[in-house]
Amino acid sequence: MSSNNNNNDARDRKIKQDTRAWAALVGTNYTTALRQTESPLVQGFLGEQVSARHLINTLNHHPLIGADGGDFVLGEAGYYADTEWSFNGRSDFVELALLTDFLRMFTPIAPRETPAVSSYFLKHTAEKFLAPHCSYVTNGRLIWAAAALDLPMVEQKGGLNLMIGVSEREHDYVKRMVTPGSTKPHGHQHRPAGYTHLQTALEQCVAGEPDLGRWERPEPSTEVFPFHEWFIQQAGRDDAVGVLAHDHRAGIKDSDHRIARTPNELLEILQEVPASSKTHESAESAIVEWARVSLPSQRGDMNIRTASIRRSKDDTPGWGAGPGTIELHEFLCPCGDGKVIEEHDNTPGFREHDHRIICDKCREEWDFVPGLSVRGWRLEPKPYRAAS
Ligand SMILES: [Zn+2]
Questions:
Q1: Which of 183, 363, 364, 381 has its CA 20 to 30 A from that of 281?
Q2: Is the Cβ–Cβ distance between 349 and 320 less than 8 Å?
Q3: Global pTM?
């Protein structure tokens, strides 16, 4: 017998034992239980296939929610519920397996952190994320799946809910993504590692397409962005830069926008969200200050390109050598009060390409980066060049 056959036999035995155990727990027949333990939806999209016997063991022996001297602790309504489970016998196992994958999507909290996401909120998010495969989730079942995964859990003062140890910001992100009518996140720094994989895998599974293959939890990124690090540290300051940094930090936390890894990305973010010219000015001050206080080795990309506000292209009869066009592109200046003008005179015999800063304040603090084409212009703070 080949080892492949041995593996298949072992798997078959495991599924038979699982199916029998599950049929006994929920009070259904073997065939109905088998339809669930062999469903493609229980294969484990973000980890090992969950075992029915492991789920049952969890109910009996888990230190927090396991049965207490034969009395159940966890029931359908949650922790120390009045009533136990009301299984339908047809889809309970599939739903618990999907809940397990739903919870695996999130980053578990670090050992020193305290669980801070209520099982009650998670259950609502799970229902929406897993619809239509699992459109009703009880508090008890959410806690059961979390316990089976050994996620950290703590009691929530005398209630039916437990606090579950998954990333609060990631949960907030998913909640906003799946809840109709909520403001969708614009920054994706808190998108859980397994979010896209699980969503895609579920769609493909239902469409009968081959699965995506094994998912590995990515290592947390250790990349450091010196401008970002410096900028959010200014959040405590009692000036315009401090206020901007404070708002920026809050926006990152709430997934309202992404992280500004470079000065240019800070300006891009301000273009994506409505920002006053005062805000532009604060961003400009922050960038100029960063250019002054940072070491050349930390700066990375200091160059910025500001927002386009208007562009026009006009025909002109020319200057005797035939007609041509004059292109005029207007951009905000860094502080937002003036403009950067880019002009292209495409007239035969009189071709001219030019750019200039129309703002006294910005002209003092910014220069065009040398060596770039007129169309490819970027600005850099003057102190940066003086210091490097
Ligand atoms: Zn300006």
A1: 183
A2: yes
A3: 0.80
Would you give the distance in Å from CA 50 to the centre of its chain?
26
Per the listing, tokens 């001219």 go with 352
Instruction: Count CB neighbours of 20 within 10 A.
Output: 16
pLDDT at 259: 93
Across the range 95-116, mean pLDDT stands at 96
Distance from Cα 279 to the centre of ligand 1, integer Å:
12
Tell me the pLDDT tens digit for each residue of 15-55. 999 999 999 999 999 999 999 999 999 999 999 999 999 99
Hey, where are the domains in the chain? 13-206, 226-299, 308-387
| Centre of ligand 1 from the C-alpha of residue 339, in Å | 7
CB half-sphere exposure, 126, CA atoms < 13 A? 30
Please indicate whether residue 180 or residue 272 has the higher confidence score (pLDDT).
Answer: 180
Cα(272) to centroid of ligand 1, in Å?
Answer: 19
CA distance 131 to 139: 16
The two structure tokens encoding residue 265: 């990305």
